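Reopening this one. Same input as before:
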Amino acid sequence: MNTEMTFGKFIIAKRKEQNLSARQLAIAINISPVYMCDIEKNRKFALSDELLDKIRTILQLSENEADRMYDLAAIARNTVSADLPKYIMENQVVRTALRTAKKNQIPDEKWERFIKEIIIKEE
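Same output, byte for byte:
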């Protein structure tokens, strides 16, 4: 049995926390209940960024939960998370940093230290 978290599993868990049926969520975001079922079973995925934002609101996702949802949706679509492309494309230094990291195969540990440094400086 595959226990890996998927977009569909995430949506099921979060809508159940809100006591919503798949049908209710589908109607709330204006898609067919059958399509919602296919999404939850990871048979289909083509939700727009606008629909992901509606799901975030309806399911009352925290910032961390929304980030997770966007990441899982991106994995399902084989794209970059919906909340990132605009930021990346508006910031040359971010693009340079990402390309430099890719070229030099920066390990996760270095990225984690970098993130901690940014968080400390923000506080």
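So the earlier flakiness isn't reproducible anymore. For the record, The mean pLDDT is 90.
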